[in-house]
Amino acid sequence: MKTLTITRPDDLHLHVRNGAILQTVLPHTARQFARAIIMPNLKPPVTTVAQALAYREEILAAVPAGLDFTPLMTLYLTGSTTADEIKKAAASEHVHAFKLYPAGATTNSDSGVADIKAVYPLFAAMEQYDIPLLIHGEVTDDACDIFDRERVFIDTYLIDITRNFPGLRIVAEHVTTTEAVQFIKDADANIAATITPQHLLFNRNAILAGGIRPHHYCLPIIKRESHRLALVEAATSGNPKFFLGTDSAPHLTSLKETACGCAGCYSAHAALELYAEAFERADALDKLEGFASFYGADFYRLPRNEGTATLEKTAWTVPPIYGENGLTITPLKANEELVWKLAKG
Ligand code: DOR
Ligand code: ZN
After folding, report:
1. Does the structure show a pLDDT above 70 at 193?
2. Which of 68, 158, 222, 237 has the smallest CB count inside 10 Å?
3. Active-site pick, 10, 155, 247, 283
């Protein structure tokens, strides 16, 4: 059987929620990844170091026995974040970044930043204390076409932020466009990007293939084929500015399959397998290890993981749902066949 063994990978952008959903989804990630950058967009959001430490304990308690998984916490940036909290976060061994959500851009972003220029003093503090800023890069202007929101964000905000804070480490999260890829390539070494499996595997037709496909709806929305090809090229190029961040974003099936479904694709059940499929199609399986296991750790100045993960070329069918008692999550590629399978520990 064909196998692929890589150093244990990290997921540098992950939503695990809390409560019952956390219990369902965390085992999937802990099986696949040694560490993950945990998004702070809970209700209410995780805005202080104290809250992040409490959330970290809740996550650790959900790690199945025998698995070794480390959550890397982040704080949600708001207009009320203080320079003192940034200093505290930078000094904490468990907090690794701040996340900027433009207010209204996506799920649980109501407490996000309404006036980005107004938080420039906070970016200055992050630059000073050397803690990364993770950006959901989409404008929220209703008049801006949903497919243009990332490109316009780069022109309107991201270029200006990088010019004003040249020492600030920034991750443009879940990039989806040719323009974002080009921006990252041209930027200094302290500017990087994560790429999701859905943006590597699908173009926007997948959202409307024969009908509305709510499980392919996420934000930033999946773009046209030319953008997908640019993302595949970036991810498989061996350029360390691009690394793995699934943006796995679980929502209950009932909240996805409804008149106004939530944004988010759930991919934690098969994240590595999905990336392997995308890399193999690009004839670049040899580039998966750098993307999945090295470049993200290097960017966050974490030691690269010890141990390995092995994928086997074995077809398996993704179950229709995970979870039970009405609390179910529909995974990406539900009921479909995947060609790679993560070998058991
Ligand atoms: O599709 C998304 N879902 N995009 C985001 O930015 C947030 C995420 C979520 O939390 O559900
Ligand atoms: Zn996200």
Report:
1. yes
2. 68
3. 247
Check: CB of residue 132 under 8 Å from CB of residue 96.
yes
Q: Could you tell me the maximum CA-CA distance found in the chain, to the nearest angstrom?
A: 56
H helix intervals, 92-204:
120-129, 149-153, 159-164, 178-186, 197-201
* Number of domains the chain is built from: 1
Q: Which residues surround ligand 2, an ion (CB under 5 A)?
A: 247
Q: What is the average per-residue pLDDT within 298-304? A: 98
The residue-averaged pLDDT of 94-110 equals 92
Q: Which two tokens stand for residue 102?
A: 């433009």
Contact partners, residue 46, CB within 8 Å, separation at least 6: 40, 52, 55, 73, 74, 75, 76
Q: Is 218 in the pocket of ligand 1 (CB under 6 A)?
A: yes
d(CA 128, CA 20): 38
Ligand 1 lined by 106 (C-beta under 6 Å)? yes
Cβ-based neighbour number of residue 242 at 10 Å = 26
Query: What DSSP designation does 53 have?
Result: H
Q: How far apart are CA 135 and CA 111, in angstroms?
A: 15
Distance 335 CA to ligand 2 centre (A): 24
How far is residue 131's CA from residue 89's CA, in Å, rounded to a whole number? 8
State residue 199 phi and psi, 5-degree precision.
Answer: -75, -15
Whether 247 is catalytic:
yes
pLDDT of residue 345 exceeding 80, the answer is no
Taking the C-alpha atoms of residue 282 and residue 126, their distance in angstroms, rounded to an integer, is: 37
Q: Is the peptide bond before 220 cis (omega within 30 degrees of 0)?
A: yes
Domain span including residue 91: 3-342
Q: Are 311 and 272 in contact (CB under 8 A)?
A: yes
Question: 194 in ligand 1 pocket by Cβ < 6 Å?
Answer: no
Residue 320: which CATH number?
Answer: 3.20.20.140
CA of 126 to the centre of ligand 2 (A): 20
What pLDDT sits at residue 109? 86
In the reported structure, the alpha carbon of residue 3 is separated from the centroid of ligand 2 by a whole-number distance in angstroms of: 30
Cβ of 149 less than 6 Å from ligand 1? no
